[in-house]
Every structure is written in structure tokens, then in C-alpha cells.
Amino acid sequence: MSNFLKRTLSGFLFVIIVAGSILLSQYSFAVVFAIIAASAVYEFHKLTNKQSEVEVISWLSIVGSVILFFTSFFFASGTIKYPSYSVYGLFIVIVLVIELYRKKVNPIHNWAYFILGQVIIAVPFALLNYIYYMEGFKATLLIAMFVTIWLNDTGAYLVGVTFGKHRMFERISPKKSWEGFIGGAVTALISGYIFSLIFPEISLLSWLLFSEIVVVFGTFGDLLESLMKRTISVKDSGDVIPGHGGLLDRFDSTLLVAPAIFIYLSFLFK
């Protein structure tokens, strides 16, 4: 019961911080999510550096994620119009060149894991800026995305624990079941219907598609992180959130949901 209470309280605080930062102002959103992106990248490299011949300089990857996040923030908000991403591109080149002077056993591994961390973590977090500023729906669509992720997780957990018998990917995540997946999908559909009532500017069908994209790609994002942790033989990416693990554990769904939702909304509003 104490563990359940700890998970509940820390989970509630986590939701308050994430949702509050988005709703409070664009600057609170930028600061909080830049910190989360940097922390997630750090946790990623802390895990991958456990492998032999992998020695990525974590702080350089963290700096890269922060540069990418804020260049995306300023560009998406319209604060900066010129190609600010050139700063990030130059930084990537510098990091690659630095490897020439480190004289490590396998620099290709270091290059590969550095780029991988940027692609699967820094880029999705940077795309949150474009969802935040999408088509005048400032903050609304981003909040809807996270609420749908959380409701999907909750529905999948409750139904999976109660009725789960048929495993999805037992090799990767033994506890995930098809029953839980369906429970999460139904819960997400309900949330999509509610959002269509609150924000009728977007059609019911579009909201329902929005919800199910979150379900599908959120599940795959969760499984991808599970595969990584199982490969490295660790349970959690960190211990920042009591009872829940690290920030990478809490945002694993977002890693694939953010790109998928960004692409979907880009087509929807065009």
C-alpha cells in the first residue's frame, strides 16, 4: 500500500508539473520541457554507456538537445525567422570532429549512439514546440496529446491487470496484453469524443483519429524503450520519479507519439 501511495502521489505531482507548465505560459513550457529533454537524453546515455566500447560524452548530448529544443521553440513561436537550425547543425559537426581527438577504441559506436540519442529523444521533444503552436490552438493540442497518453496508459493498465491473458510482446514486455491494449484504445476514443465536444473546431472523426494515433504510436514507443532496457538488462532508466522510474520511462510513449501527431496535424490543417 505504501508503494501504491508513493506511485500515486508522485504520478499526480508529475501530471501537475507537466500540464501546469504547458498551461501557465509558453516560457514555463519551454523551461520545463527543455529540462525534461536534457534529463531524458542523460538517462539514455547513462544506460547505453554501460555497454563495452561505448563512451558517449553525455554532457555534449545534453547541450545538443537543449540547443535543438530552444531553436525549435523560437522558430515555431515566430520569434526567430532565419534558419536557426544552422547552430544545431554546426554543433553536431563539432561533436563528430571531437571524436577524432578522443582516441577511443570504437569511435563509430560513440558517433552512432550520440546521433541515436538526438534522433529518438531530442527531436521528438523539439517537435512538441510545433504541436504547442499549431494553427492557433496554442497549448490545446499538446495538452490533448498528453491527456490521451495518460488515459491510454491508465485504461491499458486497469484492463490489462483485470482481464489480460493474451500477451502482445512477451519477449520484450511480459506484462503487456492485447486486452490492455484494447482497454487503452477504448479509453482514448472516449477522450477523443470529449475533446470533440470541448473543441468543435476539429471534427469528431479527426479527434478519434488523433486518439488512436496516440494509442498505436504510444504503445510502440513504450515497447521500444522496453526493448532497450531489456537489451541492457536494467529495470528503469532512472529513479527521478518515486515508484515510476526515470523521466525516460515516463516519456517513452512521447518519443513516437510526438512525431506521429505532428505529421498528422500538419496534414489535417493543410
What does this 3D model show about the protein?
The protein is an all-alpha fold and 270 residues long. Helix content is 75%, strand content 3%. It contains 10 helices and 2 strands, in the order ααααααββαααα. Strands 1-2 form a two-stranded antiparallel sheet. β1 and β2 form a beta hairpin. α3 packs parallel to α5 and α8 packs antiparallel against α10. The radius of gyration is 19 Å and the shape is globular. The mean pLDDT is 90.
Radius of gyration: 19 Å
Poorly predicted ranges (pLDDT <50, ≥5 residues)? none
Write down the overall mean pLDDT. Answer: 90
Shape descriptor reads globular
Short description:
The protein is mainly α and 270 residues long. It contains 10 helices and 2 strands.
Record the SSE blueprint:
Elements: H1 2-24, H2 26-48, H3 58-76, H4 85-102, H5 107-132, H6 140-163, E1 167-169, E2 173-177, H7 178-198, H8 204-232, H9 247-250, H10 254-269
Antiparallel strand pairs: 1-2
Helix pairs in contact: 1-2, 2-3, 2-5, 3-4, 3-5, 5-10, 6-7, 6-8, 7-8, 8-10
Short descriptors:
3% strand, 2 strands, single chain, two-stranded antiparallel ribbon, mainly alpha, 270 residues
